[in-house]
Recover the amino acids of this structure.
């Protein structure tokens, strides 16, 4: 047991993490399960990994539902939440972790479709299941969160802009969520060692990650950052709805 969250702090709760077959999403869903939550593991095309993780979490005595869904396809998203409704009938924690846009061979507007439109659609589809005391967490990067005041690497800029557009669109829903007693937190981290994005950036811009590590003093790895995301599910919602993870001295706040 990693005991990132207090034991039993999520007993009786149900948590869904998008893109949770690997990386930050997989570690986040594991931490939530270890704290007592029954979970929904969502994947796009890594079914074997998702099933393996579900098996490990069931050994902890948790229920784990595995649902494949393409978040950019509203019908696929609707089917996912039908499955959640049938299995659990509720949702207490929704972590909007899945994102992308650096993949090759995708349509020009793919980053915006996934990082803005799909995030909104997932939250709207989840809302009927979210009750008072529920939490929604949007996972982003400092490079995206601060993109309007601090330039980023050109290779990452389209993704950063699309993720900031997603964050802005989601933030507009905060008053309506708050009325229902649903907390919303943006968790923003620096470049995370070992993520797909970091790997793709390194390929496009060799040395970029080492350079960022040197200027920040430290970069979080996947499990460390996932622990911060999981923590946001139980900590009080910050006044500005923002949890900044790691060094932000290189970024200019708006």
């Amino acid at each position: 047991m990693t005991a990132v969250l207090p034991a039993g702090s999520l007993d009786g709760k149900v948590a869904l993490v998008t893109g949770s077959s690997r990386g930050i999403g997989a570690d986040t869903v594991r931490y939530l399960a270890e704290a007592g939550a029954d979970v929904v593991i969502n994947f796009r095309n890594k079914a074997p990994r998702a099933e393996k993780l579900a098996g490990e979490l069931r050994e902890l005595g948790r229920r784990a539902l595995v649902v494949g869904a393409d978040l950019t396809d509203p019908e696929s998203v609707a089917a996912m939440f039908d499955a959640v409704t049938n299995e659990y009938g509720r949702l207490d924690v929704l972590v909007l972790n899945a994102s992308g846009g650096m993949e090759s061979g995708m349509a020009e507007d793919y980053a915006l479709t996934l990082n803005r439109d799909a995030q909104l659609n997932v939250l709207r589809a989840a809302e009927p299941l979210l009750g008072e005391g529920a939490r929604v967490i949007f996972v982003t990067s400092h490079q995206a969160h601060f993109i309007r005041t601090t330039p980023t690497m050109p290779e990452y800029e389209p993704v950063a802009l699309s993720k900031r557009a997603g964050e802005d669109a989601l933030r507009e829903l905060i008053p309506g969520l708050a009325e229902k007693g649903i907390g919303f937190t943006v968790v923003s981290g620096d470049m995370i060692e070992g993520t797909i994005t970091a790997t793709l950036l390194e390929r496009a811009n060799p040395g970029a990650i080492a350079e960022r590590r040197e200027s920040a003093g430290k970069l979080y790895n996947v499990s460390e950052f996932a622990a911060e995301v999981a923590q946001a599910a139980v900590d009080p919602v910050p006044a500005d709805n923002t949890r900044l993870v790691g060094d932000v001295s290189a970024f200019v706040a708006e």
Summary: The longest helix spans residues 110-126.
